[in-house]
Amino acid sequence: MATDQTTVRFGIIGCAEIAIKLCKAISRAPNATLVAIGSRSMEKAVKFAGDNGLPEKVRVYGSYEEVLEDGEVDAVYMPLPTALHVKWAVMAAEKRKHVLLEKPVAMNVSEFDHILEACEANGVQFMDGTMWMHNPRTQKMKEVLSDAHRFGQLQLIHSCVAYNKGPEFLTHDIRVKPELDGLGALGDIGWYCIWAILWAFDYDLPTSVLALPGTVKNDGGVILSCGASLHWPDGKLATFHCSFLSFISFDVTALGTKGILRLHDFIVPFDENYGYGSFWEASQVDFGKSGDDKRWYPGANEHRVESVELQEVLMVGEFSRLVGAVKRGGKPEKSWGTLSRKTQLVMDAVKDSIERGYKTVEVITG
Asked: By its UniProt entry, which Pfam families does this protein fall under (predicted)?
């Protein structure tokens, strides 16, 4: 267990549904504790605290500013609408609060650069809330993709993330409101698709992006469903589809010259309560091992990866470890901001391609 001196004290700004999961994760992480929450009104903040059984010691505020002014808050978690990120993340950094920011990180890369600049100028740690990156399964999958003997050279990635919460969601949720989350499905779940693609290709950015025809928008111009292809000069290719209009899908498929890897629940493991997540892989090197050389497909191997904790707890723990290192005189780790920025760059290019009538758009790295 972490000592009191290394425990990171969290404040939460915004009482969105995802904040419930982070409250639990902070309580379970050995190096973190929740000390404050804030909402736009005291009534909403008090209700959130009561509904979720937060300890009485957690201070409840009726404004975001009060959380940032709290001298005992080391770091803030922000599950705010995307359009509010740049204002409040910059303000948090200027108050010397470390920033754990929900994805997508900003409406565009220019806004995100303001956030990164504020974090660097004030010496605070940044990380976004892409939880699946902290799951031990993710590292095990990377080992499979890196196995040249079994997998060969990675050629193609396809990701499909979708869910359909029904008419109420499509009418009233903040993710379909142009003034709050104008990126819609592209920002909320396309972010996962793009990050997964970049992760598989070792964060080598594509040179161009082409949005696929068929984007669906609501009356406010918010994307409800879209897809795109990503292209690299050496012939590598990736495609993705994200939608608020289809049945639930959290799929990733990676195809190599010798093998294939499939994952059906990469955002949140379906078996997370059982302490493990699974993925499947198959390789040409397995042909003939069963004694039946007539099979045209070798059959898939299921890999179950044990985990001592849920991925959101591991994320909080890693973020708190980095914050603790800064508190002890170290420098913030910049890699998480770099990965978020690359994902934002590709997302911006997809949006640009849609707005240009499905024209090819170059990914500008500057």
From this structure: GFO_IDH_MocA, GFO_IDH_MocA_C3
